[in-house]
Design a protein that fits this description.
By secondary structure, the chain is an alpha+beta fold. The protein has helices at 38-44, 46-50, 70-89, 92-101, and strands spanning 2-9, 12-20, 25-27, 30-31, 59-66. The longest helix is centred in the middle third of the chain and has 20 residues, at 70-89.
Length: 132
């Protein structure tokens, strides 16, 4: 059985394919163990740490990710993998465990940066003025 899912964070979009296999997890074609920095790799593998011990050895996960920065991509991959595992196993207990741990494992974070406006260098900051 093959399950396709996606995850988003800021401008990063990850698409995951989960299928029965031997426990291979690949991100953009390379093993997840090679992903740097380490904090991003740990974040990507979070869904497996919350799930049962033997779940990772039963599935192969292929993830394609684009856009955003390093941590935004890591969050998107994490969501895509968690959704894929829940859909693939059809396990309500796993879904509840993910929701209890962190809702963003299964629900996309829709927050976006506020757009810059005129009259200042950023969204809220204004240019300074001096009269004397």
């Amino acid at each position: 059985m093959v399950t396709n899912t996606s995850g988003k964070k800021k401008t990063a979009i990850a698409r995951a394919t989960v299928r029965d296999g031997q426990g291979r997890v690949r991100v953009d074609g390379q093993p997840v163990e090679l992903v740097e920095p380490e904090i991003a790799r740990l974040k990507m593998l979070e869904p497996f740490r919350i799930a049962e011990e033997d779940l990772r050895d039963e599935v192969d996960v292929d993830v394609r990710v684009e856009g955003g920065g390093v941590m935004g991509q890591a969050d998107a991959v994490r969501t895509a993998i968690a959704r894929g595992l829940v859909d693939h196993t059809n396990d309500a207990e796993l879904r509840d465990a993910y929701m209890e741990f962190d809702r963003s494992l299964l629900v996309n974070d829709v927050r976006q940066p506020e757009p810059k406006k005129w009259g200042g260098p950023g969204a809220r900051a204004r240019y300074q003025k001096s009269y004397r």
